[in-house]
Task: inverse folding
């Protein structure tokens, strides 16, 4: 798999920020590369096929990562990499997603159908902000791990002393907060689990 890089000369303060574009779709990578003259981002832009991520992916704190991966298992593997919690992360989903406010905490999630111009706007905006994560809520995390494992709803409700309705309401609340409320329940649940896992890892690494 090839790695495409090009240099953008404009500096971001005293630090030249790197941008990583990661995908399992080579046509997507080639299409974005073809628009390189329009990107106008600070620092270097590195294009990686998912097969090269483990060996070539080394973002510094504050670098921006665009994750455009179709395969759920591959996307989860990349989201579990320890180095990724240092980055500003933008994730493309082939689902309906909504950025609820201008600078949501944690990864930003946008539809795969987002026009390239808007995608570049989000990348540039991420490069100008400091990564902020919600505090870790262990009850939410446990519930999403159990829902993802398809444990019976009655068991989850009993464990957390909640009604079935309250479990559904909490799942909806977290999905809205993370910007994936338009996903169907199975896809949304798995994706929320992966983001909550990143959130916990971020707080562990930074001892927050």
Result:
């Amino acid at each position: 798999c090839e790695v495409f890089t090009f240099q953008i000369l404009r500096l971001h303060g005293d630090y030249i920020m790197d941008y990583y574009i990661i995908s399992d779709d080579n046509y997507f990578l080639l299409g974005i590369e073809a628009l390189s003259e329009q990107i106008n981002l600070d620092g270097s832009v590195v294009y990686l096929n998912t097969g090269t991520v483990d060996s070539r992916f080394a973002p510094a704190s504050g670098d921006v990562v665009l994750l455009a991966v179709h395969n759920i298992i591959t996307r989860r593997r990349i989201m579990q990499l320890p180095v990724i919690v240092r980055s500003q992360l933008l994730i493309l989903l082939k689902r309906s997603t909504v950025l609820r406010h201008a600078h949501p905490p944690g990864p930003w999630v946008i539809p795969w159908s987002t026009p390239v111009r808007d995608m570049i706007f989000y990348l540039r905006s991420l490069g100008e902000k400091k990564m902020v994560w919600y505090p870790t809520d262990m009850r939410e995390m446990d519930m999403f791990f159990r829902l993802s494992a398809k444990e019976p709803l009655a068991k989850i409700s009993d464990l957390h002393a909640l009604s079935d309705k309250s479990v559904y309401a909490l799942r909806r609340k977290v999905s809205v907060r993370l910007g994936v409320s338009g996903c169907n329940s199975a896809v949304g649940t798995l994706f929320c689990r992966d983001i909550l896992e990143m959130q916990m890892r971020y707080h562990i690494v930074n001892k927050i």
